[in-house]
Amino acid sequence: MKAVSNRLLSEEAFMRLVERLKGKIHMARVTESRLDYIGSIAIDEDLMDAIGLEPGEMVHVWVMDNGERFQTYVVPAPPGSGEVAIYGSAAHKAQKGHRVIIASTVFTDEWVEPKMVLVNEKNQIVQHLPFKAQAVPVELS
């Protein structure tokens, strides 16, 4: 039991939020990298829809080619364009042609089934990936 404002509440009365993976675009290719921009990542709207991203949503970007990581907000690029453009200071971390993983998360007290896609070198979806909560690497076909 915990005392809160002179009242006793059980542990069950407190919401426990956990940051969980909500969506992931795996192996995307950066199509443009520009410093002279306010900042953000532009993502093909079809890819955004596939994993449930919304304009302005914060995402983690993990650069597979150099190990850099950063967080920024999403702006939609034209659907079907294959665009994944890095703008602003993050352009120091990811260059055109780099492979990136783009992940969105959510704080929740409930289970979330992540939506995950694998894309080809043109940023077209080639596979919807299953989520496996295990430490064993999953082979990508």
Major beta sheet, strand line-up = 4-8-5-7-6-9-3-10-11
Unreliably modeled segments:
none
Distance between the termini: 51 Å
CATH class, anyone?
Answer: Mainly Beta
Content of β-strand: over 45%
- What is the CA-atom radius of gyration, in angstroms? 18 Å
Anisotropy-based shape:
globular
Strand tally is 11
Helical amount: under 10%
* Category from helices, strands and their pairing: mainly beta
CATH architecture field: Beta Barrel
Q: How many domain units?
A: 1
Largest sheet: 9 strands, mixed
* Averaged pLDDT: 89
The total count of helices amounts to 1
Q: Give the H and E element order.
A: EEEEEHEEEEEE
CATH topology: Barwin-like endoglucanases
Notes on the protein architecture:
The chain has a single domain, classed as Barwin-like endoglucanases, CATH 2.40.40.20. It contains 1 helix and 11 strands; from the N terminus they run βββββαββββββ. The strands form 2 sheets. A 9-stranded mixed β-sheet has the order 4-8-5-7-6-9-3-10-11.
